[in-house]
Specification:
The complex is a heterodimer. By secondary structure, chain A is an alpha/beta fold. Chain A is built from 19 helices and 16 strands. In chain A, the strands form 4 sheets. In chain A, strands 6-7-8-3-9-10 form a 6-stranded mixed sheet, sandwiched between helices. Chain A has a 4-stranded antiparallel sheet with strand order 2-1-4-5, covered by helices on one side. Chain A has a 4-stranded mixed sheet with strand order 11-12-13-14. By secondary structure, chain B is mainly alpha-helical. Chain B has 2 domains: 143 residues, Butyryl-CoA Dehydrogenase, subunit A, domain 3 (Up-down Bundle); 202 residues, MetI-like fold (Orthogonal Bundle). In chain B, a hairpin with a 7-residue loop joins strand 1 and strand 2. In chain B, helix 6 packs across helix 9 and helix 6 packs antiparallel against helix 11. Classes of the chains: A alpha/beta, B mainly alpha. Chains A and B meet through helix 2, helix 4 and helix 7 of A and helix 10 and helix 11 of B.
């Protein structure tokens, strides 16, 4: 757990961070977000004392950070930055082993650890361990950056716009990887970004800052549904219904009792079509190969001609896919249902437009409330203040 | 190419009745068959220049090495022939044509190494060329040349002077490194050191070497130190070595990516750890480059310190001028060039040895 109490940083007359207090429970991801110059990076850098607070206290698991030497403190806090900052003269493996070496680990301890971490971040060590940073792409370099931050197994991770410098596609993959690693390792993470979608996707809690002050600190859902001010409302954006869908994943709303058969279309039992529109076709190991639309069967098409072969890589979604992406997949294919498969392509369920609509309806109510002024009317007049 | 063809028209060697009077020019054909071989290789070099890309490298290498060796051979043959029947004090000097031809051979050789893709071909050609040079030297015809005669007279002194020269230049560079690197580090940390230090050292660099030796007399006398001899020479050379070493150290450190520094600090490196583990290895190529520049510079300037009695190869140069014996001057000058080239090569070798392949262009693909 990490606790900030009335943390303030002033540079002469200018107050960069103004009496910020919040608490992040262990194992949660706290995203600091806000317009540029709002003090989010300064706040982050005060936690590992790269910037010394002017006043206030910061505690990690009940211990004041001012009680330990800055170098000692930092060796137990993972640190990932936008520019990555890999050491160009060291190999990937040596880069990852940096903090363990500083901590005086022996080679036989840090070497396997470095290789294990490369594996975790999706860079096969056999191929990447001996490469030099300039041989890596931006996305690969940041994976190494994350591995390096995790090397000494710190309980706390500070990430300053870690995925800000890579292309959108790579960013999405890195975000998904990060979410997966975080589910596994359960670190306490403070994550700075200016990208609202990224914050909604990754955060357990969002700390929205503005001009050095904490505007609102809450779960993404609460920030979307119950913004504390007009500023929060505007900053989170107008497409909040869609953003909420970016928050939930397919696993939350999919049904797993789908009909499937390994015998091709011939053996589809007619009665299987009673309450399900699709029967999925799989191979022996359960990998999705196609589907049969029951309406086609009803229309009298012989079963052997009714199947539509598909490639699961294109036509299916994964349990961890966000509802936002699942929806866009459905719209793209023109179906009201889409198959859910695991990483190996094995069928695990199905998600329907109706299920997604139900989630949206929830959000819609809130938005309707907002637009009618039921929530906003109770807020202080933001326009006048700013 | 121009140099090589031009050589045929200029006097190749000069025959003098003794070491001082001006000589009678002789053409390259005085060397008989060796001269013709040289001309043949010149033609080969011209052919290499217009040859298709794949054949160009090896052809130029062969032409460069061949014409270089033929040149040495021709010089020897001409010297032996002209010395025959002449009195013992007669001298055969290397003429402008031969110098130009030598320059041309070097140019062709280096063009060849650049045009050759395969490192194995390059190495083999280098080995063959070295063996050839060794063979020509063993044959002894060159001993008849005037410069070799000067060496024969000076041989006792010669190696002592070379050693002296090396000691002078070596201590200059050594002290320059010992003082320059810490100053460079300080300059990267401290604005005052940066502005004042680099300013002062740059001004020192602009002082002509002779003036420097003169300027040092007063302060050294005031301190009770000898104003002539080795001490002021080493001090002057150290001052000259300082700029390249200090400036390159500073530039190398200042050029380290701030993101890398931030990452290092954020992971818990102290100032010294950051310097030793991150900044120094990254600045190393530039630091070594600075030491290399300092070494080449100081080997040259060390010649001038002969004026204040510090010794070194400069003595031969100045004596040669004094006696109007050009070949004695060359006996001092050529080894200095060789020393500078050797210093250059060894620093490049050192760089290849100690700089991480991660930051050397072309070291890893």
């Amino acid at each position: 757990m990490i606790t900030l109490r009335d943390v303030t940083k002033s540079y002469g007359e200018v107050t960069a961070v103004d009496r910020v207090s919040f608490e992040v429970p262990s194992g949660e991801v706290c995203v600091l977000i806000g317009p540029s110059g709002c003090g989010k990076t300064t706040t982050l850098r005060m936690i590992n004392r790269l910037i010394e607070p002017t006043s206030g206290t910061i505690e990690i698991d009940g211990r004041d950070i001012m009680d330990s030497r800055p170098e000692e403190l930092r060796r137990h806090i993972g640190y990932v930055i936008q520019s990555v900052g890999l050491f160009p003269h060291l190999t990937v493996a040596e880069n990852v082993a940096t903090v363990p070496k500083l901590l005086g680990w022996e080679r036989r301890r840090y070497e396997p650890k470095a290789l294990e971490l490369l594996e975790i971040v999706g860079l096969p060590p056999a191929e990447y361990a001996e490469k030099y940073p300039r041989q890596l792409s931006g996305g690969q370099a940041q994976r190494v950056g994350v591995a390096r931050a995790l090397a000494a197994d710190p309980p706390l991770l500070l990430m300053d716009e870690p995925f800000g410098a890579v292309d959108p596609l790579t960013r999405e993959r890195l975000q998904a990887e990060f979410a997966r690693i975080q589910r596994e390792l359960r670190k306490t993470v403070i994550f700075v970004t200016h990208d609202v979608d990224e914050a909604i996707k990754l955060a357990d809690r969002i700390a929205l800052m503005r001009a050095g002050r904490l505007e609102q600190y809450d779960t993404p859902e609460t920030l979307l549904d119950h913004p504390a001010s007009k500023f929060v409302h505007d900053f989170m954006g107008s497409d909040r219904a869609l953003k909420r869908l970016g928050r939930a994943c397919v696993a939350d709303v999919m049904r797993t009792d789908v009909e499937s058969t390994t015998d091709g279309t011939r053996a589809i039992p007619r009665e299987a079509c009673t309450d399900s529109r699709f029967v999925y076709l799989t191979d022996e190991s359960g990998v999705l190969e196609g589907w049969v639309d029951c309406r086609v069967l009803d229309a009298g098409t012989p079963p052997e001609d009714a199947g539509t072969p598909v490639d699961w890589r294109e036509a299916a979604v994964h349990p961890e896919t966000t509802l936002k992406d699942a929806l866009s997949r459905m719209l793209g294919f023109g179906f009201r249902n889409v198959a859910v498969v695991d990483a190996q392509g094995r069928l695990v369920g199905e998600v329907s437009l109706a299920a997604i609509e139900a989630t949206m309806a929830d959000a819609d109510t809130h938005i309707a409330n907002l637009e009618e002024g039921e929530v906003l009317g109770a807020l202080p007049d933001e326009e006048a203040r700013s | 190419m121009v140099a090589l063809t031009g050589c045929a028209l200029l006097p190749f060697v000069e025959f003098r009745a003794n070491r001082i009077v001006s000589g009678e020019p002789e053409s390259v054909l005085a060397a008989g068959i060796a001269g013709w071989v040289l001309v043949a290789f010149v033609v080969l070099a011209l052919a290499g220049a217009v040859a298709p890309e794949r054949a160009r490298g090896p052809l130029l290498l062969a032409a460069g090495a061949g014409s270089g060796l033929a040149l040495l051979w021709a010089l020897g043959v001409a010297a032996v022939r002209l010395q025959q029947g002449a009195p013992a004090i007669a001298r055969v000097s290397i003429g402008p044509g031969a110098w130009l031809a030598g320059l041309g051979a070097l140019v062709v050789w280096f063009a060849g190494t650049r045009a050759t893709g395969s490192a194995r071909v390059r190495r083999t050609a280098g080995a063959v060329a070295l063996l050839g040079v060794a063979a020509v030297l063993m044959w002894g015809g060159l001993a008849e040349l005037s410069i070799a005669r000067e060496y024969a007279v000076q041989s006792r002194r010669f190696w002592g002077l070379v050693r002296q020269h090396l000691v002078l230049a070596g201590s200059g560079v050594g002290f320059g490194v010992l003082i320059g690197i810490p100053l460079g580090v300080l300059a990267s940390r401290n604005r005052v050191v940066r502005e004042v230090g680099l300013g002062v050292v740059s001004v020192i660099q602009t002082i002509p070497s002779m003036a420097m030796l003169g300027l040092l007399i007063a302060p050294l006398s005031a301190l009770g130190l000898a104003a002539i001899g080795t001490t002021p020479a080493v001090i002057a050379l150290t001052l000259y070595a300082l700029l390249p070493v200090m400036r390159n150290t500073f530039v190398g450190l200042a050029g380290v990516d701030p993101g890398v520094i931030d990452a290092g600090r954020g992971m818990g490196m102290g100032r010294l750890q950051l310097l030793v583990r991150v900044e120094a290895p990254l600045a190393l190529p530039l630091v070594i480059e600075g030491v290399r520049a300092a070494a080449v510079l100081v080997i040259g300037i060390a010649a001038v310190t002969a004026f204040i009695g510090a010794g070194g190869l400069g003595i031969l140069v100045f004596q040669g001028w004094g006696q109007q014996a050009d070949d004695l001057t060359l006996l001092g000058a050529i080894p200095m060039v060789v020393l500078a080239v050797l210093a250059d090569i060894s620093m490049r070798g050192l760089r290849r040895l100690v700089v991480s392949p991660g930051i050397e262009e072309g070291a890893v693909s």
